[in-house]
Design a protein that fits this description.
Blueprint lengths: L11 E13 L6 E13 L5 E6 L4 H12 L11 H18 L4 H20 L3 H7 L4 H7 L14 H32 L7 H62 L5 H9 L2 H51 L5
Antiparallel strand pairs: 1-2, 2-3
């Protein structure tokens, strides 16, 4: 609405958007996702701008304050024309947009460290020593283990193939133990067996039980940890994807404006002269690229976590097999 008495025309640019950023929390010194809402209007005839920013702390306010002191385009002495006021608005947009991109790569880096720490422990889970104590044959051990003795990595099994492997394993183990018991029974008729040592049997059973409990204590908390990290990454990726949409929408709006005949000649000429508009679009495209890269990093880590969770699930299944077979194995 045009109100001449207060110097207001009937042509305004208006923008309202919400951005997500990540900051170190003052409470627990952990990365925390924060939001910022921005409303902006600019009078395309009078050159008056209005900004309203809503945020839980003073971060954006301090950035704008610092920008007004360090950036020539934001200094009060350079806001004496329609074109210069418009250019200052482009620079102010970039202050907020920079904030919504910073920090994500550091947060993802911290998450990646936690993910790799868990996955290293998962892949180094000592399955082989326990299998040796239970007298598993090398063939069965290769079916159980994630690695061969030479360290070659096998593809991680799917849930269906894991169950098939475990069923096959159980059958083969039972056949092996049954054949072994028959051999021992026959040999007992031909020779005198050494005296049985109940104390040694008891110690071995306790050792096997201790190892099984160790695996059980490992699998549950690590699975919880991986699930928590995956949830954080999914939330992070969603926030960055929403930011990309806001940046793209803002950039395309101004690109359409400058390509049309509606923009005042003064603004078009001054923006072209000082390369303000091209710098604005280049900066936004660069920020979009940074966010897209961080999204791909998050996607890769999510896939790594899913792989780790499948391995943890397999370890839990192996524990069930070990526990079921341990009582049937004789020394």
């Amino acid at each position: 609405m045009q109100i001449a008495e207060i110097g207001r025309s009937n042509w305004h640019l208006r923008h309202c958007y919400k951005l997500h950023g990540v900051e170190i929390s003052d409470f627990d010194q952990k990365w925390t996702v924060r939001q910022t809402a921005v409303y902006h209007s600019f009078d395309m005839q009078e050159g008056r701008a209005f900004w309203l920013t809503v945020k839980a702390n003073e971060e954006i306010r301090e950035r704008v304050k610092d920008g007004s002191e360090s950036l020539e385009a934001l200094k009060a002495s350079n806001l004496n024309s329609l074109a210069l006021s418009f250019i200052s608005c482009l620079k102010t947009h970039l202050i907020t947009l920079d904030w919504c991109v910073e920090g994500w790569r550091w947060q993802i880096g911290a998450i990646e460290t936690g993910v790799r720490d868990v996955l290293v422990r998962v892949k180094n889970t000592p399955i082989e020593p326990l299998a040796k104590d239970l007298e598993f044959t090398p063939e069965l051990l290769r079916l159980l283990s994630f690695k061969t003795n030479k360290g070659t990595q096998f593809p991680s099994p799917t849930r269906q193939s894991t169950m098939q492997t475990l069923n096959t394993l159980a059958g083969r183990v039972r056949v092996t133990f049954s054949a072994r018991k028959k051999t021992v029974a026959k040999s007992e008729k031909l020779q005198v067996m050494p005296p049985h040592n109940p104390e040694a049997d008891h110690e071995r059973e306790e050792e096997i039980e201790r190892q099984i409990h160790g695996l059980m204590a490992f699998s549950f908390p690590e699975s919880q940890r991986l699930t928590s990290l995956a949830t954080t990454l999914q939330e992070t990726k969603l926030a960055m994807t929403l930011n990309i949409g806001v940046l793209r929408g803002l950039r395309e709006y101004y690109e359409e404006l400058f390509s049309s005949s509606r923009i005042p000649t003064e603004i078009a000429l001054e923006s072209k002269y000082c390369d303000a508009f091209n710098d604005f679009t280049r900066r936004i495209k660069s920020l979009e690229g940074h966010l897209a890269t961080d999204c791909r990093r998050a996607e890769t880590l999510i896939l790594m976590i899913e792989e780790g969770k499948r391995q943890v699930s397999t370890i839990a299944s192996l524990i069930t097999v070990f526990r079921a077979m341990a009582n049937d194995i004789s020394v």
